[in-house]
């Protein structure tokens, strides 16, 4: 994988989110021991060239909104992936 140290740390963490579960950008930031970096986590997700293999679609906003999705198909694909994993959105 190619990315910055921070991106790689985020992407590695994303692979630990189980199928059918979601986390917020803030929860991911806390999970990588960088609790004030929710925006940076969102940016790392946006730069993820390995979607959906590295499941950035499992990360949502704190208000329950979907946020973005940089994978092919955009936000519609994110919603489709989450629904296929039985996530209630």
Topology:
Elements: H1 5-14, E1 23-24, H2 25-31, H3 38-46, E2 59-60, H4 74-84
Parallel strand pairs: 1-2
Distance between the termini: 30 Å
How large is the count of helical segments? Answer: 4
Q: Could you say what the CATH architecture is?
A: Orthogonal Bundle
Give the CATH topology. Answer: Arc Repressor Mutant, subunit A
Rg computed from alpha carbons, rounded to a whole number of angstroms? 12 Å
The largest sheet is: 2 strands, parallel
What is the H-and-E element order? HEHHEH
CATH superfamily name? Answer: Winged helix-like DNA-binding domain superfamily/Winged helix DNA-binding domain
Q: Helix fraction?
A: 40-55%
Provide the spatial order of strands within the biggest beta sheet: 1-2
Coarse shape: globular
Number of beta-strand segments: 2
Query: What is the total number of structural domains?
Result: 1
Which terms would index this structure?
about 90 residues; mainly alpha; Arc Repressor Mutant, subunit A; two-stranded parallel sheet; 4 helices; about 40% helix
